[in-house]
Amino acid sequence: MIAEHSRTWRPRHPTDLQQTIGPLRRGPGDPTFRRTVDGAVWRTTRTRTGVATVRYVQVSRDELRADAWGPGGRDAVDEAPAVLGDGDDPAAFVPRIALLDEAHRRNPGLRMLRTGRVFEALVPAILEQKVITLQAHESWRWLVHRFGEEAPGPALPAVGGVARRLKVQPTPEQWALVPSWEWHRAGVDPRRSRTIVTAARHAVRLEEAGGMSPADAAARLQVMPGVGAWTVAEVAQRALGDADALSVGDYHLSNYVGHALWGRDMTDDEMLEAMTPWAGHRQRVVRLLGTTGVQGKPKRGPRMPFVDHRAI
């Protein structure tokens, strides 16, 4: 199917499509995101003019292309350079240690993405609060299939060889109307579902955070009950292009960073202090560590349990 809108551009900085856009994928079965065998990345979004399906292609090392379908397609291709990190400038980043220097040298195309869609990033972040990632991804997949709409554009090959269109996540109005028993069926406890419904009712005000400074955006988001520093960082990493957004309060992060860089467990406060030399680029440090293959803390001891809220 021929795209309704297309744009090809040469990014201002080296950009690796796969590395840059990866954080938008919420698990291997994410119905709003797909990688295809030709190396393209597909995602759905809601722009100010409507829904869109976007296909991003790494044409060459120095060239990217975005194709789009749907009423929001023109906006989606216009925004594509920003989504793929065109506003991210790593020039001020100083690796300081050999491990990060090597990772930075080997991954020059890793950019901090910026979708500009605050509420779009907020809902899956809330679903990931205080549960294992697999459980959150299952809830996300179930809810979007149940309440999202079919995306415009071509159907894509899926598991089993059946071609299906992607889905677009529900509008704030639709999220606000999801009944309590459907949240229960999706395995989402009342605290998280209540946070999403409350945020959905204030989505217009929350969306304004996309044009604010990181500090003001954080303050706006944390006005919502149930939205704390961890959730704000997860949103900022995807919607706001914040290279410094560190997910403080994460179940694993402080110990992962502590062992990867200093060989020991760390509390969140210790991690924050130890990351001071990389202020402004702390999320970039985390992303670069992820490319090195370092394991962080040895996987011994208790893990966060899987809690089946459908059985409660």
TrEMBL record:
<feature type="region of interest" description="Disordered">
    <location>
        <begin position="1"/>
        <end position="33"/>
    </location>
</feature>
<dbReference type="InterPro" id="IPR011257">
    <property type="entry name" value="DNA_glycosylase"/>
</dbReference>
<keyword id="KW-0227">DNA damage</keyword>
<dbReference type="InterPro" id="IPR051912">
    <property type="entry name" value="Alkylbase_DNA_Glycosylase/TA"/>
</dbReference>
<keyword id="KW-0234">DNA repair</keyword>
<protein>
    <submittedName>
        <fullName>3-methyladenine DNA glycosylase</fullName>
    </submittedName>
</protein>
